[in-house]
Design a protein that fits this description.
A seven-stranded mixed beta sheet has the order 8-7-6-9-12-11-10, with helices on both faces. A five-stranded mixed beta sheet has the order 3-2-1-4-5. Helices cover 37% and strands 21% of the residues. Helix 1 runs parallel beside helix 2, helix 5 crosses helix 9 and helix 7 runs antiparallel to helix 9. The longest helix has 18 residues. It is globular, with a radius of gyration of 24 Å. With 416 residues, the protein is an alpha/beta fold.
Length: 416
């Protein structure tokens, strides 16, 4: 099924289309959400109106069967009450759920985007350099072994080397690299391969880095790599031979992006040296690339186990095929099928109240509550769980449109 994903950040809204197993950026629009923002009152009324008007325009323009909204950054700072007010109004006026992504879930999406196709039995380093921080993730066998969050970013470098963005840098690249390397964590291992994220594929192509066809692993989103020695050599040119104005002209749509190019390159070079990286894979992937690979980590299923157990178990199997962990129900074989309160094999000795409290505790930790609404039916127990999830600000997804009118007014999604 074709889908549209709308990524809402602190200053930019990006609209993507996912079709034929490919993700395509359709359009972007700038907003000044920080102006007039307050964690208790939310974004300004003017920005709220402009955002809703823009989203309705996107809906009309692309008219896909599934449109999902994911918000990050500034919106995570909203209080729970402010989130509810925005979510309610957004749903009422657009019909879409305003899904604010937690920081750890965004990290999961980004890791999926970068490394899900890397199947080699060798360590892989993920490099994500931001304005004020840098995240390094070392994976092995598809699992995260080490995670480093460093108080070091582009802003740190520009503060320490204030003339870095003169036409050509008055600082030697080696001096900036040495400055960064002193701030990196002590390690006792090396890794041959790293993926360097943040629009770096586009940047390296524009700037003329010596990119080669990716022979390390196969991934359409990561088609090229560069050997460390070639990366270092080009960085010297970026510092001392290619002027900032020339860099800006390479990206006329967003010339200010190039103001971080030298700082980013120096940070990345220091990391490459520190970890013994030989092959650096530049990446343009972002959170949405990870969402389309695996949207949920762990979910809770809600529904009538007495009336629609086969339906619920079919949903559970569908999610398992997508590598989604179903936190509850844990088991599949009912001891008393069709009775008022279904107990599964493996839950012997637990009272209905104890089982329901366990179920609710799993809602505390899940990414979403999936309501298995066969034919639109939602039972009494599911209503309790929906109310609990709503109070926590959890994402709620109905497998089918609920027949109860009030549930149709609840900010939620329909369809997995």
């Amino acid at each position: 099924m074709e889908k549209v994903y709308i990524d809402i950040g602190s200053s930019t809204v990006k609209v993507y289309e996912f079709a034929d197993n490919k993700l395509k950026l359709l359009e972007t629009k700038s907003f000044r959400f920080k102006e007039g923002f307050d964690s208790d009152s939310g974004i300004s009324a003017e920005n709220e109106h402009a955002l809703i008007e823009y989203i309705n325009g996107v809906k009309a323009k692309y008219a896909k069967p599934s449109i999902k909204v994911l918000a990050t950054a500034l919106f995570r700072k909203l209080s729970l009450d402010a989130r509810r007010r925005l979510s309610d109004k957004f749903f009422r006026e657009t019909g879409l759920y305003f899904n604010i992504i937690a920081h750890d879930l965004e990290g999961h999406y980004l890791e999926q985007a970068l490394s899900s196709e890397y199947k080699l039995d060798k360590p892989l380093l993920l490099i994500n350099i931001g304005g004020g921080s840098t995240e390094l993730v070392l994976q092995e066998g598809g699992k995260t072994k080490h995670r480093y969050n460093l108080d070091l970013g582009v802003g740190t470098i520009l503060e320490a080397f204030p003339r870095l963005n003169e036409p050509t840098s008055p600082y030697e690249l080696s001096a900036v690299v040495d400055f960064v390397e002193k701030k990196l964590p002590k390690i006792d291992y090396v890794t041959d391969t790293a993926i360097y994220n943040g629009g770096e594929l586009t940047y390296m192509r524009l700037a003329g880095y010596n990119l080669k066809e990716n022979s390390v692993f196969e991934d359409d989103d990561h088609p090229q790599y560069i050997e460390a020695k070639d990366f270092f050599s080009k960085n010297i040119e970026i510092f001392g031979k290619i002027t900032l104005e020339q860099l800006e002209h390479l990206m006329p749509a967003d010339p200010l992006w190039m103001h971080g190019a030298r700082a980013c390159s120096a940070i990345a070079q220091a990391i490459v040296v520190h970890f013994g990286v030989k092959n650096l894979i530049p990446s343009d992937s972002n959170m949405i690339h990870g969402v389309v690979k695996q949207e949920h980590r762990g979910v809770v299923l809600s529904g009538s186990f007495r009336k629609h157990l086969d339906y619920i178990l079919a949903v559970k199997r569908t999610l398992a095929d997508r590598n989604v962990e179903v936190l509850s129900p844990r088991f599949e074989e009912p001891k008393n099928p069709g009775e008022e309160f279904v107990v599964f094999q493996g839950e012997e000795g637990l009272s209905p109240l104890e089982l329901e409290r366990y179920h609710l505790s799993m809602i505390d930790t899940c990414d979403a509550l999936v309501v298995c609404a066969s034919g639109g039916y939602v039972g009494a127990s599911a209503l309790i769980e929906i109310g609990y999830a709503q109070a926590l600000g959890k994402r709620i997804i109905f497998t089918e449109t609920p027949e109860e009118f009030m549930l149709q007014t609840l900010p939620a999604e329909v369809g997995l």
